[in-house]
Amino acid sequence: MKVQVPNPLNWVRGLGFPYTAAATPRGVEPVAQASKLGDFYDTEWARSPLAQATRTAALETVGRAVTLAACRPEVRNTDRIDALSGPAIFVANHQSHLDTALLLTTIPKPWRQQLVVAAAADYFFDSRHSAALAAWAYGAVPMERNKVSRRSADRAAGLLADGWSLLIFPEGGRSTDGWGLPHKGGAAYLSVKCTIPIIPIHLEGTGRVLRKGSKTLNPQTVVVNIGAPLMPEDGQDARSFAVSIEQAVAELADETNSDWWSARKRARSGETPSLAGPEHDSWRRDWTSPEHKPRTTEPRSWPN
Prior knowledge:
By secondary structure, this protein is of the alpha/beta class. Helix content is 38%, strand content 11%.
């Protein structure tokens, strides 16, 4: 004789909503659950007063101590943005995982006190743990880098309208060999759409401190060179403005590695070295890579 044991779940199901979800009829394909990761991850909680306070405390203590020990940052030309007020879009080249922490501790106040970082949705927001860590530690918001996403653009535009500044790496990822990657147009699009100035920045040396794929720190001085604010010209579209932004970062790189006067003369004559590097065989590009070039210790010269 078989004894039928009652299923306790039947009692729970009998309670109905909101304790259990409705059952899916046989033969009907269940509705796919909307993803809460990647570009869909909600980061609003990371901008609450409590999250901001704890993040600022962590960055100004542990974060600053680590970047000072590893990078010994030399921040140049902060006076170029002294007259600027309101939110801005900070655009920098990208060679190392140290870049974000370095900029979050060296971008001048008041911008770094209300700053969000555009982070790759497919890399930093692929799991709950990594998404929560990126959102809290960096104030990161997910940004699609492999396709155009209206959700990403609208989210960033909304934050800029609310008074937040944005840090974005327009190359879409870290350099693999020290040379720059082509710029994507997201930063230029947001600047044109929201009428927000672009602040170009060139980082010199982070790739030598912690190269992509390496877990070994090689502490040395890193230069953070801040450029003058850029605004699109009347009628200029995002594509051509993105080219102007990339050129501005290249001119800052030239200025860092030589001097202001020489860099300006080369920019005037269209001879600014490209961030993409020489078009040579891979071994030659690697041999001449900025990651392998020792930093010059010669003082910068000024025109007579």
